[in-house]
Amino acid sequence: MSIRTDCISFGNIKLQFMKNRWIIFILPVLVSTFACTRYRDITYVRGIGQSISDSLIQTTYSIYKVQPFDVLYIRVMSTLDPKADEVFNQSSQTNALSGGMNIMGTFYFSGYPINEQGFIKMPLLGELYVAGLTLKEIEELVRQRTREYVPDAEVKVRLLSFKVTLLGEIGSGQHTILADRANLLEVIAMGGDIQKTGNKHNVLILRTTPQGMRSYRVDLTDKNIIRSPLFYVQPNDIIYIEPTRAAALRISLSELSLFISSVTAITSMYFLIKTLSK
Predict the structure, then answer these.
(1) What is the pTM of this model?
(2) pLDDT digits (tens, 9 = 90+) for 207-220
(3) What are the distances in angstroms from CA 9 to CA 21, 24, 136, 275?
């Protein structure tokens, strides 16, 4: 009789398991949902280049106007007056150009910082108001003032403080741009690309303006971002890559698999104990 009871008990276990066989079908769905990353979520500028209209894209670039606390590199050159280099150019800048020193570190301390009121102070020329001007406009201003002393003076102006900060689901850090301009894709490449846990659809850009800090949101998977004026970064931009919802919940595939296995084991144990206790 006892043997028969055992058989009935295990039969009941089988019956209970069959009643809950939905677990067998839902587990693969859960795993595939969390394991598969959608194509549209990982592809930059999706769909670009698939039509003739995309072969040439007009971009919009806003020329940067310098602000207080920017640092400028200014070089005055003259063929008629060799002493102009000694008067207007700091020697450490010349040494840095020749490769004798760390360029960016030396430039930062030997460049011309724009003070809070928007002025720079140059040898012989005194204070010049430059806030709100482009680099070309500053070149012209310094050239006009310098030619009062050196008739053939030529001027070169560069922005030394062109830096961009990356935060979030990317190689975080501050990156210096050694070019007149750079776009979002170039800056992201400098950070080592966005991680799989990063949300490319809702990237936050914090931009410093004379009025204060402005915030923008861009979708890097949308090909129209290339036409946007936000496609090109500006000095002192902060770019934050927020995590996806799955990453925010700290659920990885391995953790999910462990969770499902644990739930399955507990469920089976529950029905086994429940059946044997009858």
Answers:
(1) 0.71
(2) 999 899 999 999 99
(3) 18, 22, 89, 6
Task: Report which secondary-structure segment, H or E, holds 65.
Answer: none
Query: What is d(CA 156, CA 170) in angstroms, rounded to the nearest whole number?
Result: 35
Q: Where are the domains of the chain?
A: 2-36+249-276, 40-62+162-243, 71-159
- Residues 138, 130 contacting (CB under 8 angstroms): yes
Do residues 239 and 231 lie in contact, with contact meaning Cβ atoms separated by under 8 Å? no
Using left for φ > 0, alpha for ψ between -120 and 50, and beta otherwise, residue 97 falls in: alpha
Task: Give the CATH fold of the 40-62+162-243 domain.
Answer: Outer membrane lipoprotein wza fold like (3.10.560)
Could you give the angle at which helices 2-19 and 253-276 cross, rounded to 10 degrees? 140
What architecture (CATH level 2) is domain 71-159?
2-Layer Sandwich (3.30)
